[in-house]
Design brief:
- The chain is of the alpha+beta class and 270 residues long.
- The protein has two domains: 39-167, Fervidobacterium nodosum Rt17-B1 like (Heat Shock Protein 90), CATH 3.30.565; 177-269, Heat-shock cognate protein, ATPase (Actin, Chain A, domain 4).
- Helices cover 32% and strands 26% of the residues.
- It has seven helices and eight strands, in the order αββααβββααβββαα.
- It has helices at residues 2-33, 80-91, 105-119, 177-181, 185-199, 256-259, 266-269, and strands spanning 39-49, 64-75, 127-138, 143-152, 159-167, 226-229, 232-237, 250-255.
- Strands 1-2-3-4-5 form a five-stranded mixed sheet, with helices on one face. The chain has a three-stranded antiparallel sheet with strand order 6-7-8.
- It starts with a helix and ends with a helix.
């Protein structure tokens, strides 16, 4: 009798252990199944030009320097055309200098310094330019990036610009206000306006510019600078766009659910 009892006990323990082990395996497979839409690597580089003289500073420094970092999509292979479209859009992000590609920024930046140097030979205030990108969302529904530029070309302070972009993974199309909202753009702006007024404590009767903003014709409008991130839409106004530099970048973050009825793209409506 005892051997049978012990056998049953051992069998029960083995069954429990097996079930637990199997559950862990299932959990692991669920976790690894949630893979990103695209694979990518980071392109980074830096360059400098010229040197300050001892008269300017005890330690010699480059007259101009540039650093940049941005993502380069490289998979999956079946989406080579889509990947190419997105990569080209990311490369064209620079806004603070005349350049059609991030890797071309150093040459354009150094050229601007040379022009000033030709006019003022003794000029040697160091300039700097930094481009740093981040992947904000990488899912089957949307791929979103932010590219931030910080430029110093003399003067009282840096120039700062951040460019947000969202792409449709199936096509590589860049989302704009028109493609995202279509004929319901006015409805989306009305919803966003109420969020903006609440954030800056403006009631319905107050002018939208009464808190120091510069909206054209004193009418709220959304920027074409936005990204979809974690079930929300982030709209960004850069310094000087709708307010003085002292107010910095201005962001409105809206839950995607509040705009769901305004969205034209089916994959983002779900």
């Amino acid at each position: 009798m005892k051997p049978i009892f012990y056998s049953l006990c051992l069998f029960s323990l083995f069954s429990v252990f097996s079930c637990k082990k199997e559950k862990k395996k299932d959990h692991h497979s669920e976790k690894t199944a949630q893979v990103d839409t695209f694979s990518y690597h980071w392109a980074t580089d830096s360059a400098s030009w010229g040197k300050t003289t001892a008269a300017y500073n005890q330690k010699s420094r480059p007259l101009a320097s540039v650093r940049y970092q941005y993502p380069v999509l490289d998979g999956p292979a079946r989406s080579s055309k889509v990947i190419g479209r997105i990569n080209r859009c990311i490369l064209r992000c620079p806004k603070l200098i005349s350049s059609d590609s991030i890797p071309k920024v150093p040459a354009a930046f150094f050229s601007e310094y040379q022009k000033l140097k030709d006019e003022i030979p003794d000029y040697q205030t160091p300039w700097s330019y930094t481009i740093k990108a981040a992947v904000l969302e990488n899912s089957p529904k949307v791929f979103s990036v932010a590219v931030k530029e910080i430029s110093y070309m003399g003067g009282a302070h840096d120039q700062v610009s951040q460019h947000l972009q969202s792409f449709v993974p199936a096509t590589g199309d860049t989302l704009t206000l028109q493609t995202l909202f279509g004929p319901k753009l006015a409805s989306a702006e009305a919803i966003a306006s109420s969020y903006f007024r609440k954030k800056y404590r403006l009631n319905d009767t107050q002018s939208v510019n009464s808190q120091g903003f510069w909206f054209e014709n004193d009418k709220f409008s959304l920027p074409n600078n936005f990204a979809i991130v974690n079930d929300s839409i982030r709209f960004l106004y850069n310094p000087y766009e709708i307010a003085p530099f002292a107010m910095g970048s201005i962001t409105i973050k809206l839950p995607l659910d509040t705009l769901r009825n305004c969205i034209s793209i089916k994959t983002l409506k779900k």
